[in-house]
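To close the chapter, one final illustration. This time we ask the reader to focus less on the individual chains and more on the assembly as a whole: which components sit near each other, and how the overall shape emerges from the parts.
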Amino acid sequence: MTGTAADLLKPAELLKQWLKTRLTAEQATWFETQLQKIHQSNSDRELHITLGMIPRKLGRADLSPTDTERAEANRLQPGWDPQNWSIDIAARVAVTCQLAELRPERFTTTITDLCRNADLAESIALYSGVSVYPQSAELDQLIGEGLRTNIRSVFEAIAHHNPYPAKYFDENRWNHMVLKALFIDSTLAPIVGLDKRANADLARILCDYAKERRAAGRPVSHELWRCVGPFASGDMINDLERATHSESRTEKLAALLALSTSTDERAKAILAAHSAIQQQIANGSLTVGSIEQQQNSSNVS
Amino acid sequence: MMLIDPHAHMISRTTDDYQAMAASGVVAVIEPAFWVGQPRTHVGTYIDYLSAIIGFERFRAGQFGIRHYCTVGLNSKEANNEELAEAVMEILPRFALKEGVVAIGEIGYDEQTELEDKYFRQQLELAKELELPVMIHTPHRDKKRGTTRSMDVCEEHGMDPSKIIVDHNNEETVREVLDRGYWAAFSIYPSTKMGNTRMVEILAEYGAERIMVDSACDWGISEPLGVAKTAKLALERGIPQNQVEMVCYKNALAAYGQSGQMHEDDWLNPSAIDQRTMYEGNSILRGGREPVVQESAVERNANNLIIE
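The assembled structure is written out below.
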């Protein structure tokens, strides 16, 4: 599963290309010089200075990648989407990608050290880039450490718009990442591979979680039903049915959509009782995406 | 009135304190690296401590809409453990360039030993090299001489007084500190440092130029509302509003803003990436939802029975 040397060269080059169109000539020269210095230096001093100086020298504006650039990212690493990246994130990841390329033997030691001593913005940057670093057991260990954070934005750097988890996490870690996302009021939609990695154990965990929330009189995120549907049977169908009676229309629609992905006979019967919605699901006008869109527009208004 | 508390050890404080500070008008705090009450014996614990004040504590403050900055340094007490001190000096440059680090500090003298002197000087040189302001902790004992000596040493090293904040002043030290061109900070800290009635008298006598107040709240019996209460008392006792704003907001911003790491825009108009990632209080306010801080939540007594 480890990327080849050619694969690794590309992300650093691609990131530098994106940056070049956004930086002033002076900024671009500074950055190029620093990359050279890191390459030629035997100690990590230049590396630390460069990573520290990046936001000061290059700024923290949004990267705002174009559709073409997002497509390039996705071509290089399926699922990699830098839509929420800023200039400093892109530059810091370009630095670490260059390290991976030029000093592969020391990469995991260096990246672990960097993450452990990172400030908030650095943590977000370093973890945002994990899908384009060479994979290894040590990197995996480090990502586990990152996931244990209490800081939502650091967690999301790993969990959102990042193909690494779907590609490399074992089932237990995957399931706990999804559950933690709900637990810390994050969202599931930006998790890459959410449907592909759905599994029976996760469905059970999420139904238990929903019960726990209801017992405490707390709301349940409509998003969790999406991971339950394909594996729903027995009591889980009851949970989904209860959700179709929710006061929240969003949760009701999400539950019905989830039921449509179940092969259970009772699921089909419940769905059939909502024929208009069943029709919308069948003709593709009610989807996970349309529910998210509605939800987002109602949040804004 | 917007307030800045330029000396607050929030790592030792609870979320109640953050709520109360935010409700009282505090928009930003500066957390100086300090003595944690018990000696650290390994550089590893020092690293983890510095990582906590540049990372997790910043996040914690952001949840209450408060911007968090810090200073990094080897404090005077621990300078006396030479093995630890050497190791800390090794790692300091790395932490000094982290985001939101506004000074080298709090550094200076405790018992005025040779080792304290050695590492104070080394850290002044580091601040000069990295073009960072310096926060000086003046000693609790033999304060007047210790304060004079701190400034003598700064000048010996060619430091610019306008980039140095001399903290924990009192009636006996303030005149010289101001006359020599330094910023004079006062810690409104019950029993051992300044009280706010005395502080208001100092303001009446010296005016507001280059003076700032802080709470220095920490693990001891201290008052996280020190800045807010001093501002209120000063206004009540007739100190002009513009002077109160200077000592409780503007001067701290001007002094520590020299680091390039602290801007009014950070809380008035935060960057898009900050709003997405680390400054939740503000984005909640912007979204038009209920502010995270409510007066009622600040009241703390066992008669508020319901926990939800």
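Chain A touches chain B through 26 residues (CB under 8 Å). The radius of gyration of chain A is 22 Å. With these observations in hand, you are ready for the problems at the end of the chapter.
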